[in-house]
Amino acid sequence: MSKVLIIAEHNGAALNPSAAKCVSCAAQIDGATIEIAVLGASVATVAAEAAQLSAVSRVVTIEHEQNDPAIASVLAPQIAALASDYSHVFGPSTTFGKDLMPRVAALLGVNQVSDIMSVEGSHRFKRPIYAGNAIVTVEASADSIVVATVRAASYQAADGGNSAAIESADTDVEIPTHTRFVELQTGQSDRPDLQAAAKVVSGGRAIGSAENFELIYKLADQLGAAVGSSRAAVDAGYVPPETQVGQTGQIIAPDLYIAIGISGAIQHITGIKDAGTIVAINKDEEAPIFEVADIGLVGDLFNIVPELTDALG
Amino acid sequence: MEKILVGLKRVVDYNVRVQVKSDGSGVETDGVKMSINPFDEIALEEALRIKERGEASEIVVVSIGTSEAQQQLRTGLAMGADRAILVETDAATDALTAARIFKALVDRETAELVILGKQAIDDDNSQTGQMLAAVWGRPQATFASEVSFDGDTARVTREVDSGLETLEIDLPAVITVDLRLNEPRYVKLPDIMKAKKKPLEQIPLADLGIESAPTINVAAYEPPQDRQRGMMVENVAGLIAALKDKGLV
Asked: Would you write out chain A's pLDDT as a tens digit for each of its 313 residues?
């Protein structure tokens, strides 16, 4: 019988949406028992949120001052100690999970399955390689614990309405002090979070400047959308790195993705392949973005975007 | 610090559009251009800059693979690394085994810092650095976009989903690098000539006595499901009509 422990990402106040997607992934394993671990300093609110997710049978909390903010080398030994009761340990393919889970896997003496996009059996999964240019079916050893990250964009969030038991646990492990949190700089914004947003408006190099990105912000605000960008726009300094969508940025699956002045390099396409509808606005009709767009419009973005924003107002 | 180890993985060049073989047995690599994993090039560039600032004495580049990986190590030497080590094996190396190999080399070389790419662009695992830090019992600072040192500590700014996180870590440590940390230098011809004379040590993997890890086997390869090209609209009115049709606005 499979027993899956999901490591929840959170910011101390709310559960990250990736947790509900990890639950959907775990639920694809036949007959799996699903539990969620929440590590932090004071996690009652987050644990209560996790307990509502359907198919979850128990939420385990580990509270320590040192667990907030999350540091991989601090959390990993606690998770590895907790893991002995489970057949699988899943985390999200966010920067939180990508940083943490391989450290957990190594402490448990196993390799990790990165970026699960589909479950083919309790130890058999599909995952992308080569920036999504190939999909492999991988088989983890049936004799060892499975440590994996889940590609959140491949899954819908699990429903709520549950009320799983919440129990606190403690692990008798030494917590290292060699790594210290200094600060987190976030681009403070009232716009929706890129990972969670139903609509995303992204701008590329053709936007031309940080000032011109105002056009993208206005359209995004009109739609209630999050703002994304291409690597070229970030490299040019128009927008901060956390807006980058693509293989090396964020991989997202909104209902609507509007790519403006983005040519559509494979690395970018990898990040949006699971979007519901892709709209491309570009002046180059040969741009590769049109090969994956559901709706394409060739023209000058500096005319089209203001017109579109006005028309939606 | 005395010594920095940098990993250089030989991978299919990032400009190559990788294709799955028609029989599903793997991806087409015959006659395909091979290069240093781009993130590893950034790792080496950072190590070189640390040395050029006078904060490190020696840069050792390491690769794991067949003797062909000597090409990538020679490129690393031409960029400015002092020495190279090739851990030779014909088998594909999983991330945990790679981490254990680096741990063995860290012990042998008494390195104080290991800089690796945040992921390799072939298997996209993003595991080796974190695993090395775990088996070494030392700090990890992944996805670095800024690195500085103050005595025995490093300050590393990391690109995370919510913004930029800064950590302070005690050395020895592992740093994995993101795209925006630096722009790697170009190799000049005289440097390529000079690199031929730099030491490149080949160590058979078996000589390191590495414990093997449970592997994750690849059962099948398939091409991704491509999205279909959709419709083109003439103007904004057409776009809005199409969006309304789908119930998106």
From this structure: 899 999 999 999 999 999 999 999 999 999 999 999 999 999 999 999 999 999 999 999 999 999 999 999 999 999 999 999 999 999 999 999 999 999 999 999 999 999 999 999 999 999 999 988 999 999 999 999 999 999 999 999 999 999 999 999 988 899 999 999 999 998 767 888 898 899 999 999 999 999 999 999 999 999 999 999 999 999 999 999 999 999 888 999 999 999 999 999 988 999 999 999 999 999 999 999 999 999 999 999 999 999 999 999 8
> What strands lie across the sheet with A256-260, from one edge to the other?
A226-229, A199-203, A256-260, A277-282, A295-298, B231-233
Q: Which numeric CATH code is attached to A199-312?
A: 3.40.50.1220
Same fold, A3-168 and A199-312: yes
Residue B230 in any domain: the answer is: no
Domain count for chain B: 1
Contact between chains at A95 and B130 (C-beta distance less than 8 A): no
Q: Which of A181, A41, A39, A202 is nearest to B158 (CA)?
A: A181
Q: What is the pLDDT of residue A196?
A: 84
Partners of A183 in beta bridges:
B166
Report the gap between the CA of B232 and the closest CA in chain A (Å): 5
CB contact under 8 Å between B18 and A130, yes or no, is yes
pLDDT tens digits, residue range B193-232?
999 999 999 999 999 999 888 889 999 999 998 888 999 9
**Domain at B163, CATH number:** 3.40.50.620
Chain A residue numbers touching B158 (CB-CB < 8 A): 95
Q: Has residue B226 been placed in a domain?
A: no
Contact A139 B219 (CB under 8 A): yes
For A231, the closest chain B residue by CA position comes to: B179
Q: What is the greatest pairwise CA distance in chain A?
A: 62
Task: Specify the residue for token string 């912000």.
Answer: A217
Best of A7, A186, A230, A295 to substitute, by most chain B Cβ atoms within 10 angstroms, is A295
Give this prediction's pTM.
0.94
- CB-CB neighbors (< 8 A) of A297 in chain B: 232-236, 238-239
Chosen for mutation from B21, B35, B94, B236 (greatest number of chain A CBs closer than 10 Å) is B236
Quickly name the fold that domain A3-168 has: Rossmann fold (3.40.50)
Specify if B197 maps to a domain: yes
Closest CA to A257 of A244, A270, A272: A272
Over residues B77-85, mean pLDDT: 98
Query: Domain coordinates of chain A in residue numbers?
Result: 3-168, 199-312
Token pair for A295: 């709706």
Q: Give the DSSP H/E element, type plus range, for residue B45.
A: helix B38-52
Contact state of A106 with B235 under an 8 Å Cβ cutoff: no
Nearest-CB residue to B227 (from A235, A292, A296): A292
Both tokens of residue A234? Answer: 């970030």
Distance CA B38, CA B120 (A): 8
**8 A C-beta contact, residue B227 and residue A280:** no
Å from A62 to nearest chain B CA? 21
Q: Which of B20, B29, B227, B245 to mutate to test the interface with A (most CBs of A within 10 A)?
A: B227
- Report yes or no on B229 lying in a domain: no
How far apart are the CA of B117 and the nearest CA of chain A, in angstroms? 12
